[in-house]
Every structure is written in structure tokens, then in C-alpha cells.
Amino acid sequence: MPLVAAAALPHTPQLLVRPETEDRDLVLRVHGALAEIKCGLAAARPDVICILGGDHIEGFFLTAVPALAVYVGSTVSGTFDRYRYTFDVHEPLARAVLEQGIGRGFDLAYSQDLALDYAFYVPLHFAMPEPRVPIVPLYVNVYLPPQPMPARCYAWGQALRAILDARPERIALVASGGLSHFPGSDRYDSPDYDWDRQMLDRLVAGRGRETAALTGEELDKVGNVEFRTWITLLGAVGDAKARVICYEPSWHHGNAVVTWPVE
Amino acid sequence: MSLHYTFPPAAGYPLNRCLYRLKSDDAFRERYLADPEATLRDAGLDVERIAALRALDRDRLIALGAHAYLVFMAGLRLKMATAPQTFERF
To answer: How far is B84 from chain A (nearest CA, A)?
Structure first.
């Protein structure tokens, strides 16, 4: 059946563990937007949440760096500071995505044993509906060059949509990441918020397919290497017009919460 | 154009592995905080890399092959471990 929800959410760990340097009111406004997503997901009644995330060199260190991967275990766990997360994984769907993705020419890697990254559990901490539903973690390499090209991410999103539409489950598709930020670089305090705003305008206008033409160099230049997860989701939602729930630029990070109509 | 996130050179692997463990391995981080010099020496780093890492000298670390994100999150996790009261948890 068709997707029942689609959203892009931020995962910056300062939303979970706030340093004194982080504007508390801004953090709470982003929490409010994520609470709205949680309500929307509850209303959409998904059986499973497929979440596209970029690993922060947590589950995949330099032992192996897949461009695109699927987690195909029965549960998945991750830790951060005092937080301990374990999620049930929808194994039949994860396996179908892996096998059919390979069948469609996408050479996906898979894992049954990795530490879940905060790209996955920070958004789920705030937006997982109750009762909780299983997830399928879908990996897009964003931080370890050479990353997959935007056009490839978009094509994978298109294939993913075809796979998901043919499934019996009610599926929510979430992209985790962005927008502009430069963790660890000398541009940490000067993200490219103009790029973010112009991109959000394009997505609101239903011009998501244009993101397939972006280059990896541009994404790096504007602090949006993580935008690859959004581009993958855009391949899945096509020309649907985005709704921006919030865009909250902090001193180092453009926090965007966005949904797309899918039904 | 130089990228912000660059390919991690093989020569930087031991350094990146230490940064990764400071970020993600609680036991290694605790050992480091108890005895940084010995922990990094045992992990195979030389004097220059130990000095750069202990100072969290980003530019120097990156020049030695460190991945920028690993430098950032290793530093944040060390701060969260040494000054937990300065963070608000939700």
C-alpha cells in the first residue's frame, strides 16, 4: 500500500543533551515541531517507520563504509551519554528492501550487528508514536568521502518507493539530517542559511526532483552533506509539495522539520 | 575547492581510531580521562599525535589526517563526561 507519512527531521544531539551554549527557547521550539510530527505519525497509524539516516562514523567505522545499507536484524540498539535505546526492527520489510533493492540494481550493504547512530534515535526520541512501532534503519553515507552522488540517492529513493508501495504494511518514511551545519570544521559558526531557505522554498513549490542535479561538492560547500538523506526521500515522494513545520537556525545548525503529503 | 569532509588518509587511521573510541567507547574514554598519555601511547600514537589530541588542536589534528567530525564529537563527548552538570538532558 502507499506510504502513510513522509517527513524530514533534524537529529542534532544538542536537541537531546543541551549545552549551555545552545538557545533553550530554540531547542524547545524544535521539540514542539517534533511533537507535531509525533501526533501526525500517531494519526497516520504506521505499522513501521523506515528511517533514512547518515551514520556519524558510529555503526560503520573505517572497517567498512557502505554508500547505501540496510539494517536487517531483529532489534537495534544505540547509546549516547546516559541514554540507552533499543528498537524492534521490522525484519520482513528490511529484508524485502534489501533483496528487492539489490534486484533493482542498487548494491546495498547490510548489517545485523551495529551500534545505532544518533541520526536515528534522536528524531525517534521525540517523534516515535505510542505505542511504539518497529523501524527499518536505512543508511546513506554522508560523512566519509566518497559519498554517493545526489542523483544516485534520488534514484534509490524512487526504487525504494516502488518497493514500499508494493508492501502490505502501512509505512512512514522519515529522512534524518540537516540542514546546514559544519561540525568540526572552521565554519562551525557560519552555516549557509540562505541555501537552506532557498532549498525549502523549492521543496514547498514541489521542485524536489531538482535536488538530483546537485553535486557532492556543493553539498559539502554549504554544510549539507546530510542532505543526501533528504534527496533519497525526495526520490520517494516525487513532486509532492513540502510543508515546513519549522525552520530554526541556531548559531551553528539549521533545524528543519518538514512533511510531505503522500496519500 | 577544498572540502570540509575529506577522505581519511590511511596514515591517519590510528589517530582516527582513537578519536572514534573517545567518541563511542565509554571504557576507552574513561581510561583516557584517568591517564591520557598512557592510553594514547598504548593505542599506538606517537608524541606529536598525543600532544595534538590532548590539546584537541583541530587544525593540527586535521593536518595529521583526522576526520573533522570525529574531532568535533570526541571533544563534545569528553566535555559531556567531564562537565556533565553543564548539560540539560531531555
So the answer is: 9
A160 in Cβ contact with A3 (< 8 Å): no
What is the residue range of B18's domain?
12-84
Tell me the C-alpha distance between A54 and A179, whole Å.
13
The contact set of B with A (CB < 8 A) is 1, 3-8, 13, 16-17, 20, 23-24, 26, 58-59, 67-73, 76-77, 79-80, 84, 86-90
User: Which residue, A237, A212, A235, A215, is CA-closest to A224?
Assistant: A215
Model confidence pLDDT, tens digit, residues A177-236: 999 999 999 999 999 999 999 999 999 999 999 999 999 999 999 999 999 999 999 999
CB A217 within 8 A of CB B1: yes
- Pick the closest to residue A142 from A121, A174, A119 (CA basis): A119
Cα–Cα distance between B8 and B15 in angstroms, integer?
A: 10
Q: Which residues contact A207 (CB under 8 A, 6 or more apart)?
A: A239
> A55 pairs with which residues across the strands?
none
Q: What is the pLDDT of residue A25?
A: 98
Q: Which chain A residues are within 8 Å of B4, Cβ to Cβ?
A: 182, 185, 187, 220-221, 223, 225
Neighbour count for residue B26 (Cβ, 10 Å): 12
Residue of A41, A52, A9 whose CA lies nearest to A233: A52
Chain A, window 79-108: residues with a beta carbon less than 8 angstroms from a chain B beta carbon? 79, 81-83
How many domains does chain B contain in total?
A: 1
Report ipTM (2 d.p.). Answer: 0.95
Q: Does domain A3-260 have CATH number 3.40.830.10?
A: yes
In a domain, B23, yes or no: yes
Question: What residue spans define the domains of chain A?
Answer: 3-260
What are the distances in angstroms from CA A210 to CA A5, A139, A174, A202?
Answer: 22, 22, 20, 9
Q: Where are the alpha helices (DSSP H) in A45-187?
A: 91-103, 118-127, 150-165
Asked if the structure places residue B3 within a domain, the reply is no
In a domain, B89, yes or no: no
